[in-house]
Write a structure and sequence with these properties.
This protein has 462 residues and is an alpha+beta fold. Helix content is 20%, strand content 24%. It has a domain of 304 residues. The longest helix is centred in the C-terminal third of the chain and has 24 residues. It comes from Hypocrea atroviridis (strain ATCC 20476 / IMI 206040) (Trichoderma atroviride).
């Protein structure tokens, strides 16, 4: 009679330091030199190199939700564009405040939902009262004028600070919180594309878009760009006659592979356009200055443009007579704006206004559905086995669970192909396309409506 097998004891794997992780990562990347798009290859990294975060949870852009709900507050077109710029400069606090990471690749049909509850405490932007000396005339009322803000704005080294407060920092008597609901779904696997929709009905603000990246290993860094289906973030202001803003993404670089310390830098251009107000923003991300020093700086211009003849793509292309405001500063720290066409460096400090100060800010926490009300294909539940193993430093187990998940997705894809079935998202009308603006299905609208009431049970919806 054979003796019983000993009980299985799961112990943490041999720990790896950051240096050994980077060497492993670099060794994998070297195999892809010359590959035009790393993202389309969807290679599988060892679990010890992954951040225990699903991709759909990671890309939300609402790191500072109080900056989002402030969009559309002002009655003046220039001020509303400044509100959009302020939000844009907060959307990736995770890069400014945390370390770069590689989240899990998303599975087709995977989805993620959450809420934020935020104070409506961003300083009000008002540029209507006093004409700035030397500014150009404008057909837009109040476009070239000095700044007034609400009493809670606070002072800084510039004449006034418009930066959003840290999340949870209420001044004076507590005000009711605003609720923002978020829904995203992986709509395509080849290429990897997800659709997202954000809504704050109380303020009449929504945002939507497709997320897709392309990535290339240059030999010293990984360059990341928006993919062909990623047309940026589209923000709509329902209470402003559905005024819409398109915000496009710049290039990002994952560097420090050889130094043993990963870092993110941003380069090239980002654009914000509003055809309704005929105002455009060009943000030039300057990665390096003299002698190769990293600056992480933004040079920007806000100006009048013709949506039917949009030819201005560089800051220097914009004539002074069209300039409404200029922006400058390190995007990881403090960015200021000035009114009128003068370069920021020629404007006295008292006429420079802080649009954002990143230094005191941190990423706002999400409000998540209870685990018992999450569906099997909901990101946090789908990847829970991998996440738990990584947190326990049981990397071999994490890799086994991860590989099993990935193989199950391949099996589903093979069955769809055999049955000649076409994948259709559940919550979004479009897999890709529609000008980069995915529409919600009726089920998607129901899910966001329930989230607005903090109801997470989807029985009866799916």
């Amino acid at each position: 009679m054979s003796s019983p097998a000993p009980p299985t004891v799961t112990t943490p794997d041999e720990p790896q330091n950051e240096g050994s992780k980077l060497r492993t990562f670099l060794g994998i990347l070297k195999k892809f030199i010359g590959v035009s798009d790393l993202a389309s290859v969807r290679f599988s990294l060892p679990s010890q190199l992954l951040e225990p975060t699903p991709n759909l949870e990671y890309w939300t852009y609402l790191d500072a939700p109080n900056a989002f709900v402030a969009i559309g507050t002002s009655d003046e077109p220039l001020d509303r564009m400044l509100e959009v710029v302020r939000f844009w400069l907060t959307k990736d606090l995770k890069y400014a405040k945390g370390k770069p990471c590689k989240p899990y690749n998303s599975c087709l049909g995977e989805f993620f939902r959450c809420n934020w509850e935020t104070e409506d405490n961003a300083p009000r932007i008002n540029t209507v009262d006093l004409q700035t000396p030397g500014s150009s005339s404008s057909s837009i009322k109040g476009a070239a004028a000095n700044l007034k803000v609400a009493a809670n704005s606070g002072k800084s080294s510039s004449s006034v600070s418009l930066t959003v407060p840290q999340h949870g920092a209420l001044s004076g008597e507590a005000a009711p919180l605003l609720r923002i609901s978020y829904l995203t779904e992986q709509t395509s696997h080849h290429p990897p594309v997800s659709a997202f929709h954000v809504a704050c009905p109380e303020k009449g603000i929504s945002a939507r878009g497709f997320d897709q990246i392309t990535a290339k290993f240059t030999g010293t860094s990984v360059k990341v760009l928006p993919g062909e289906h990623n047309m940026g973030i589209f923000i709509t202001l329902e209470k402003r006659d559905n005024e819409t803003y398109q915000l496009t993404h710049p290039a990002a670089h994952l560097g420090g592979l050889f130094r043993g310390s990963l870092s993110v830098s941003v380069s090239e251009m980002a654009y914000i356009t509003c055809p309704d107000t005929k105002i455009k923003v060009i943000l030039h991300y300057v990665e390096e200055g003299w002698l190769g020093r990293t600056t992480n700086k933004i040079d920007g211009v806000i100006f009048k443009y013709d949506p039917e003849n949009d030819t201005k793509t560089r800051v220097q292309d914009v004539p002074d007579e069209d300039v409404l405001a200029r922006l400058s500063g390190p995007w990881r720290e403090k960015v200021v704006f000035t009114l009128g066409p003068r370069p920021v460096k020629l404007v006295p400090p008292e006429e420079q206004h802080v649009i954002i100060d990143i230094v005191p800010l941190n990423v706002a926490p999400k409000i998540l559905p209870p685990s018992e009300q999450m569906l099997p294909n909901e990101s946090l539940r789908l990847w829970s086995g991998v996440t738990e193993a990584i947190h326990a430093k049981q990397y071999s187990k994490a890799t086994e669970v991860k590989v099993a998940l990935e193989e199950a997705q391949r099996d589903k894809a093979r069955k769809r192909e055999e049955n000649k079935e076409t994948w259709q998202p559940v919550f979004f009308e479009h897999v890709v396309g529609n000008g980069g603006k995915p529409d919600l299905t009726e089920k998607g609208k129901q899910v966001l409506g329930l989230a607005q009431k903090s109801e997470w049970d989807l029985e009866g919806v799916l």
